[in-house]
UniProtKB/TrEMBL annotation, chain A:
<dbReference type="InterPro" id="IPR000883">
    <property type="entry name" value="Cyt_C_Oxase_1"/>
</dbReference>
<dbReference type="GO" id="GO:0020037">
    <property type="term" value="F:heme binding"/>
</dbReference>
<feature type="transmembrane region" description="Helical">
    <location>
        <begin position="224"/>
        <end position="252"/>
    </location>
</feature>
<dbReference type="Pfam" id="PF00115">
    <property type="entry name" value="COX1"/>
</dbReference>
<feature type="transmembrane region" description="Helical">
    <location>
        <begin position="387"/>
        <end position="409"/>
    </location>
</feature>
<feature type="domain" description="Cytochrome oxidase subunit I profile">
    <location>
        <begin position="24"/>
        <end position="568"/>
    </location>
</feature>
<dbReference type="GO" id="GO:0022904">
    <property type="term" value="P:respiratory electron transport chain"/>
</dbReference>
<keyword id="KW-0679">Respiratory chain</keyword>
<dbReference type="InterPro" id="IPR023616">
    <property type="entry name" value="Cyt_c_oxase-like_su1_dom"/>
</dbReference>
From TrEMBL, chain B:
<dbReference type="InterPro" id="IPR011759">
    <property type="entry name" value="Cyt_c_oxidase_su2_TM_dom"/>
</dbReference>
<keyword id="KW-0479">Metal-binding</keyword>
<feature type="domain" description="Cytochrome oxidase subunit II transmembrane region profile">
    <location>
        <begin position="59"/>
        <end position="159"/>
    </location>
</feature>
<dbReference type="InterPro" id="IPR002429">
    <property type="entry name" value="CcO_II-like_C"/>
</dbReference>
<feature type="domain" description="Cytochrome oxidase subunit II copper A binding">
    <location>
        <begin position="161"/>
        <end position="314"/>
    </location>
</feature>
<dbReference type="InterPro" id="IPR036257">
    <property type="entry name" value="Cyt_c_oxidase_su2_TM_sf"/>
</dbReference>
<dbReference type="GO" id="GO:0004129">
    <property type="term" value="F:cytochrome-c oxidase activity"/>
</dbReference>
<keyword id="KW-0813">Transport</keyword>
<dbReference type="GO" id="GO:0042773">
    <property type="term" value="P:ATP synthesis coupled electron transport"/>
</dbReference>
Amino acid sequence: MATADIHITEGGHDHDHDHHGNFWTTYVFSTDHKMIAKQYLLTGIFWALIGGTLSVIFRLQLGFPDADISWLEPLLGKWITEQGKLDPEFYLALVTMHGTIMVFFVLTAGLSGTFSNFLIPLQIGARDMASGFMNMLSYWAFFLSSVVMFISLFIETGPASGGWVIYPPLSALPQAVSGSGLGMTLWLVAMALFIVSQLLGGVNYIATVINMRTHGMSFSKLPLTIWAFFLTAVIGLLSFPVLLSAALLLIFDRSFGTSFYLSDIYIGGEALPNQGGSPVLFQHLFWFLGHPEVYIVLLPALGITSEVVATNSRKPIFGYKAMVGSMLFIAILSFVVWAHHMFVSGMNPFLGSVFMLLTLIIAVPSAVKVFNYLTTLWRGNLRFTPAMLFAIGLVSFFISGGLTGIFLGNSAIDIQLHDTYFVVAHFHLVMGSASFFGMMCGIYHWFPKMFGRMMDNRLGYIHFWLTFAGVYMVFFPMHYIGIAGYPRRYYSFTNFDTLNSFSDLNMFVSIAAIITFSAQVIFIFNFFHSIWRGRKATANPWESNTLEWTTPVVPGHGNWPGEIPKVYRWPYDYSKPGSKEDFIPQHIPFSMTPESNLPHENEMIKLEKEEGVNVVVVDDRKGH
Amino acid sequence: MFKVIIAIGVVLLVIILLTLFRIGNLVNVVKGTSKEKVGSSNKINAGLLLLFMFVAFGLFFWYSIVYFDDYTLPQASAHAGSIDFAFWLTMGLTGIVFVITNVLLFVFSFKYQYKEGGRGKFYPDNTKLEILWTIVPAITLAGLVLTGLSAWSNITSKASDDAEVVEVMGYQFAWGVRYPGNKDAELGAYDYRLIDASNQFGIDLSDENSYDDFIPMEMHLPKDKEVLLKIRARDVIHSVFMPHFRVKMDAVPGMPTHFKFTPTKTTQEMRDELGDPEFDYFITCTEICGRGHFSMKLKVVVEEQEAYEAWKAEQATWLKLNEDYLEKVPAEKRELARIKAGIEDNTETEASL
């Protein structure tokens, strides 16, 4: 440890790895799952900053509608009108791109892409992904998609501006809004590439989890993180192709004169020839992905949280089987609730009844998960690492935002609340913020394994408290604004007397949003500073049980220098009565822990002997 | 000059913060706090979590109670009560869960914070407990589903035959309203290909029912009579939202939709209730539809049935206001059109003079 401290003062720079590629094969076109994970993470952070900046700009408009923002002209150019106001169409582009970027590029690619890649091989005991090359292709498809989406921000007609749900005909007709011109084309191209990336990644995650688990790692011994990533990949594989088909049909309608979504339209002084299409068809196709997408971003966050809460409570996760069962049930149900986004779209009201019933059922497994988290905390010995705090924050958001889902899933109540700020508050808490906190939780927790150094705790605490309080200050007031009937995606509310009584609350929300966003600078500093100058980590700094902590401080290519460890027990043997330490890693056989074994575990010893126990001893004091 | 000073200030602030961070690091190295498994920060964070809970709940209850009248909308339709009942029932039940679970989360975090030499309780599962908290939410939700279902099926049931029919059409960026007229009480047919600058609705003049249709500048509705809104859109999707009536339905091009409801308070009664003589009901748009999405407002007037009938009677038909469209009426129906549209036959009188 002394050496570690010296490294802070000297700022050591000894990052030579034990594999010998050149710069391009090591850092750019790498097939190593850990490097690909870092690529996803950095790209995700980049997008999060862009997405956050966009939201701050439109919050300026909403919080200070009378302010002169011509000082933003160097950044936004002609999108600032001569009166020093934000252009209303650009406002729509901002909310559209904020949604698209956050949902897909940050919380899908940045969260699931990072941690599925990083943790699946490490936690199941594999040398790498099933196909390293496909994994690399997956990242580069995502990168290309990012480039296209990024370019669309700067074109003259502006980026896509029909909302992140891109409902046609608005998204199909450039006459309707200027963002539906080239911006929308680029959006569709970028999303098509994105889906390719997701499918390449998903196939890989599933194949790896099924086929490449180390000896003894049965599905019932998998850490909950892996269960979450596995189910997420399955959901993604089944739902993303549907979005691709929806997007393809839209491309046909836009460019080749078909009428899948278009019918009876008179716009810009002319009647269009399209007849017989249905805009509602698009909504069905979109939400068939769109709803599972919610769980694609949320399940990995819940998996990460389960792991971090158990480790830092020094307790087994309560109800492991129920946790797996809930996730499985959520994954299945996520495919049969999509039309709760469409209660007032004009679809048959009978469908509304069916989808209300199915939607409210999904609250049951969610409730089970919350109760299990709470019981895990109960009588624990809690260590509040930054990761643990973010995990607790996630549980709080999951409760607060999940409960408002029960309002919106009820078709009768949804008549009033649909497309108001209540919805904005709901999904930003339960999906946006909860998943974002899951991502932060994961970064703080696995940073030592990624970069061999620790992040600074105090900065982590400041970051957490500003963000946690900030998120509640931003999104909680929106419930009131929503109950009062304020519609979403409004450039301003000054036209309405009834809808103009919350300018003070809107200002409060905007200020909170700016503070919350600024607090992320602390994280960015901490992240990059710690990569090079953080305190050196030990191999298992959190005293955790899962396999990734049995690798060297910075695992090289192939993850374990020697043999891959075998697994003998589940990953949650924390504070087991009788054991000396309060954790027993997965690779420790029962024959080595007679003092803490439960009766049925003693019987396992025989089995172990038959197979020949072979413990891989890892020196966790050794650096790399 | 001012900007330069601000820039210098920001740079200095960043330098000061960085220096503080560095000093903190060095102090930690000297004191060796970084070697401790769990430092004093654990206590601070545990305390802050509890403090956060009290402050947040305090603000939540304070704002919810004190500003109740500001964020709730009065009810102005017959079905509004059933929606609000479902809403407040859900609010009550989820409110209890919200408080209990969040309290447990923060109190457990505080109470079971790390103690030197302490250990967690090895408590991997408890089937009874898990079954209990699967079944209780399931039953509660079943109750909520039933409440919601009965309200939903009532609201979406078929409108009665004598309901007052009003057509509302969304377009970029306003609402158009069409009434079936005083002679036949049937809306005339329409075709989007007939739309032009004057014929905004695409009224089909070969249909006799269209001759007495009128298109006013604002929507008038009778009190205590069922109204059936026939909703359509001309260009992109819009959504009819009438917050006081708890009415919302998308307006979809190519797929007419509808919503039935019964207004229960006249505009005047609502003005008295709110103590706001300026108050007016309105329709606004809740589906993103382009540049002017936020400005699609249409005034709605609810009045007693007699006043409503009187207002209707004075409305000039669309055909009367656009007499040149008579040419598009098939020749054999032109006479009927004149009568139904209330157009006096000036041509013949002029000719005889």
